[in-house]
Amino acid sequence: METTRRIALVTGGSRGIGKACAEALARDGFEIILTYVSKPEGAAEVVAGIEAAGGKARAVKLDVGDRPAVAEFFKTLKDEPLHVLVNNAGITKDGLLIRMKDEDFDHVLDVNLKGAFTCLREAAKIMAKRRGGRIINISSIVGQMGNPGQANYVAAKAGLIGMTKTAARELGSRAVTVNAVAPGFIETDMTRDLPADIKEAMAKSIPLGRFGSSVDVAAAVSFLASDAAAYVTGQVLAVNGGMYM
Question: How many CA atoms lie within 13 A of 73 on its CB side?
């Protein structure tokens, strides 16, 4: 029996939260396109794992901060059944704001916010024409409460929340939902290398008493991409173990 094809695009899908999202959406029956920038071997491993489990996936090298490249890439999808976009790609260049270089501030916004905007805009064109789709922006708890040493990253993640709410209003009439997921402290390559005492102090600030996992975040993405979330739009789904400031 022929089934209806549905494609999910996950930016920054070669590791961490992006990898978990790609794997979860593949289990949900989506064909996966994941993007990467610098680690083709990681992307290839994700694709191989999805295919070994019976799914379909491919990896594409794409810097979402390169607007012309993003526009050209989406042209290849204009006739494809793109149903889900997960805006996950991001970078960090931390530093106290009084010492932060202009180029470090700009680079983080170019990728984390402007890149997400370009992907959202191009995906929206395809989804609006097809009258249906799901756009999910990966924000962060720091975009809601701030974080010392991350003025650039926080600005980008807070901007994603505002962009999510505006896009939801603009695209609702075309049956395209737009939501954000705001992870709290998640076990990643970055947090794994933190000193034990710092990790312990951070965990104490979380009511559930532990860091979350990328799988926890992917479960929220899976829900927002599903038919069960057809009447959910313009929302920020916090996956933070109850941590609020």
Answer: 25
Q: Which is the catalytic residue, given 36, 153, 231, 244?
A: 153
> In b/e form, how buried is each residue of 144-161, taking b as 16+ CB within 10 angstroms?
beeeeebbbbbbbbbbbb
Does the active-site annotation cover 244? Answer: no
Distance CA 69, CA 74 (A): 9
pLDDT in tens, 50-94: 999 999 999 999 999 999 999 999 999 999 999 999 999 999 999
DSSP 239: E
- With vertex at residue 171, the alpha carbon angle to CA 79 and CA 61, rounded to the nearest 5 degrees, is 45
Give the end-to-end CA distance of the chain in Å, rounded to a whole number.
51
State whether residue 150 is helix, strand or coil.
strand
Record the tokens describing residue 183, joined without a space.
Answer: 């992870």
pTM: 0.94
